[in-house]
Amino acid sequence: MSQQWTRPATRTEIIDQLVEGVDRYNPSNVSILEDYLYHQIREREYDCLANLAILKLYQFNPDLYNPDVVINILIKALTAAPSPDFNLCMALLGERQNLPLSDNEPDPLIPLLPSLRNLSTLLQTCRFPAFWESYQSEELSPLRENYTVEYAGFHDSVREVVVRAVKVTFETIGKERLGHYLNLTGEDLEAYVSSLGWSLNPSTGVISIPPNPDNQIKATVTRENITLPSITKAHRTFRCLARFGDGKALGCLSSLLTSFEPYAILVEANTIILVLKN
Amino acid sequence: MIDEATLVVMQQQMAQQAAFAQIPDVVKRFILHFYQSILDNNVPEINAAYESGWNKLTEKYYAKTEWPDAELIAPLVNDDQVFLTLYRELYYRHVYSRLSPDVDDRFHSYENSCELFNYILNSEGPVPLDLPEQWLWDIIDEFIYQYQSFCIWRSKVKSKTEEELNMLADGAQIWSTYSVLNVLYSLIQKSKINESLAAARRGESPEAIAEIVGEFGSRPLYRTLGYFSLIGLLRVHTLLGDYTLALKVMDNIELNQKARLTACHVATYYYVAFCYLALRRYPDANRTLVNVLNFVSRMRPYHTRSYQYDQINKTADRMYALLAIGIALSPTRLDENTMIGLKDRYGDQYAKMQRGSEGLAAFEELFIYACPKFISSSPPPYEDPDLLALYIQDPPVDPPQRHLALFLADVRSQAAVPTLRSFLKLYSSLDAQKLANFLDEDEEELVQQMMMLKQASRSISRAGIDGGRLLDGETISTSDLDFAIDGNMVHIVESTIGRRYGSLFIRNTEYAQRIFDNLRNSPLPIPKAASPTVAEAPTTPIAAAPKVAKVTWAKA
């Protein structure tokens, strides 16, 4: 996992100590981490490990459980695709027993969870048009109205997931297709494309994506690298044979055996001929 | 006159004496000797008693019953509480492995573990105790095993008796996750093992490290327990489904180091590999598994008689299953031996898994067989009968099933990969519409699948990283097939692997060595007396001379 993922540059010293140290188990620290989550949501930051630390505290202390926080963590993790963040959160979550909340209110996570899972699958499998359709459906209005409305740049975060997938797969892509993926049309789409530094050919409607190591394919031949020390360790014979090159053992053998004075060695097909000189 | 209370005490004493008399003499002698070895801190003797004496007597006298109660043998060992705690450690471990522990055993084994760790952790200076590494590993290993076993037992509400329900309602702290983590973290902190490992990595001198770790950490007992506690944390976090934290506690451990203890080495690699699998870092999982499976097969000749042999073999079988999953999801060339080992065990499942969604049942079978026994850290609400009734009505999903569902979701999202790959392999460029027709799919759907395929052929991996921490990694390409889409045209290239010289070289060199030895050992033709005429005309040094010895090259 990249440095940015394991320790984002935006993480403060206090949070870092919590995430890295044993203080992460202290239930009284949960509010610090929860505040940090809301800060991430407002400021377009993301810190998966800090959010997992919240879920860990909920796992060990069911009393602390706050469904709104969990939903926000899952929404944040959605837009980390294709990274497995959503599943990492789910792995810590499932222990939740179906017990009533302390205020006897219904748990808002329960009806939302299947939809969130579905949205995650759609992003993981790059079915972006289906994602937008599902996300904007009537059924998911509670998710939009109560949660993602607070999430600064949620749409942009999803578009970043799209960009990550398109960038590695395409050299050029039709404007209409990309528009479907990004859920943008007309001037919005053109503005977004140019903000990425991608170029649109207005007459053909084809967008060129700058070359990167993933969309520039080339056939390679992988060669095995054998280092001399690794061979000499293996067998005493290699010490005398290894210097003769790339494994043509027959040649090696004949060279080796020239030291057999007064005999000379001839290798012919699969027969070694030992010849007395003179 | 004798009153009733005295009578009861006397009866108890008599019963005890009778029970004491029942203990075979050889067992009594063993305990005395064991006790003396521990008093003397004689590690080789302790080791012999621990690895062989105990097991032999278990086979002979206690294959189906408990060892004598600690209270019963107390007079033999001067009522030495430290020895009795160690003795109970073995006593309960025997109950867990050979018999079935009842609720009292479970509670008491917890209390005894606490006593042992309190003794080690809360003394003013380091305790004057030296135990063999194997035993220390087993103490930590068993501590976590009993915790795991308790969590699983605790989660089954329906089968509990009235008495058990009461005990569970009152004993919420027994085997609680916090108490288990507390022990492991305390051992880590007391031994300053993280500081010591970090200093060793920086290349500091042994004196400087001794300075850093202080009086506790420089004792083998603490250092070893500290190290094993790190592996213990790796295990506990994995059991609870926290894969990132599990790998994070290993930050200071370098995996490629020499194995200190076979059981520890194998466990470490198993859990690390499983975490990588859960993080979808398949290349790292595969590499870790191949590495340890090679280690196990190299170790096999030395372990045939060891009592851990079975355990290690079972873990190896499960690791082959994980490897089959790993290479089905991210095809990797394996060395011949490992591939044979894998196909011997899971050839059928492996073939099915390579076919994508058809193989879902095989993925499920191998995952459930090979995964750790996941647990749930929070107990059912035993203290509240109303909530408990609700819990019984609507219980949470079993932890292994829950983790299986998450894993299968990953597999399902990759299900189209094998089919797509097999078509792409046939072309160097292909129109997306045409490919969609082949597959009987909508073109737009297909292009989206292609993006998924592309991302599935990239993974985070530690392959190119020297040292560093287990969570570190860079994105690498994991497939020999690569493609890019230009408008609607899919361009495909395949990477090939050049001829492998390594094994050819080794094989031929071995032939060469054999022939060389043969030649040296065979009698040489007798040289003729040198004649001047021949000596003057050596145009070719290798002339077809009269004396010719032939050695036939072994047929390849």
From TrEMBL, chain A:
Transmembrane segments: none annotated. One of its GO terms (molecular function) is ribosome binding. One of its GO terms (cellular component) is eukaryotic 48S preinitiation complex. One of its GO terms (biological process) is formation of cytoplasmic translation initiation complex. Residues 46-225 form the PCI domain. It comes from the Eukaryota. Keywords: Cytoplasm, Initiation factor, Protein biosynthesis. The keyword Protein biosynthesis applies. It is found in: Cytoplasm. Belongs to the eIF-3 subunit K family. Component of the eukaryotic translation initiation factor 3 (eIF-3) complex. Component of the eukaryotic translation initiation factor 3 (eIF-3) complex, which is involved in protein synthesis of a specialized repertoire of mRNAs and, together with other initiation factors, stimulates binding of mRNA and methionyl-tRNAi to the 40S ribosome. The eIF-3 complex specifically targets and initiates translation of a subset of mRNAs involved in cell proliferation. This is Eukaryotic translation initiation factor 3 subunit K. It comes from Hydnum rufescens UP504.
Automatic annotation (TrEMBL), chain B:
It comes from the Eukaryota. GO terms for cellular component: eukaryotic 43S preinitiation complex; eukaryotic 48S preinitiation complex; eukaryotic translation initiation factor 3 complex. It is found in: Cytoplasm. GO terms for molecular function: translation initiation factor activity. InterPro entries: eIF3l (IPR019382), PCI_dom (IPR000717). Keywords: Cytoplasm, Initiation factor, Protein biosynthesis. It holds the Pfam family Paf67. Residues 281-483 form the PCI domain. GO terms for biological process: formation of cytoplasmic translation initiation complex. Component of the eukaryotic translation initiation factor 3 (eIF-3) complex. Component of the eukaryotic translation initiation factor 3 (eIF-3) complex, which is involved in protein synthesis of a specialized repertoire of mRNAs and, together with other initiation factors, stimulates binding of mRNA and methionyl-tRNAi to the 40S ribosome. The eIF-3 complex specifically targets and initiates translation of a subset of mRNAs involved in cell proliferation. Belongs to the eIF-3 subunit L family. This is Eukaryotic translation initiation factor 3 subunit L. It comes from Hydnum rufescens UP504.
